[in-house]
Hints:
By secondary structure, the protein is α+β, with helices and mostly antiparallel strands. The chain has 6 helices and 6 strands.
Amino acid sequence: MATTKKLTTVKKPKAPASNKKVEKVAKENKVTVREIKKIVKLDPEEALVRLCAEGALDKKAEDIVVLDMRKISSFTDFFLIVSGTSEPQLKAIAGSIREKVRSVNGLRPIAEDGFPISQWVIIDYGSVIIHIFHKDKRDLYGLESLWGDAGRLEIEE
């Protein structure tokens, strides 16, 4: 007696993002499709820190420094350190970073601390921790010298 086996069809996996979706995200964030595709090729943590830096630059953040903490820290991969010149600007920088990351990656911060009035705002995405300082406070705390062994990533301003 012969047995028959039922053949099942295998569906092709979907592409990560259609061109229409990429174009929509690019338009919403006022960047080119080429820039989005460039970010996607990076490792996820580096792509996230670069996206956060873009959000900060959108609100004219100054003195942007990215510390690569992967070789010296077990709690995060990158520190993004930026400065603003006023409390309203600190608030705008933080809001711009949160909005850009949420619209492109759908991520929300794990934690946030500080207020613009304290002149130091921290946004924690786990693998990326953002420090938004008022210019005067940044020199006082000196995170760049405290973590002087960390490598640095270039960010075009």
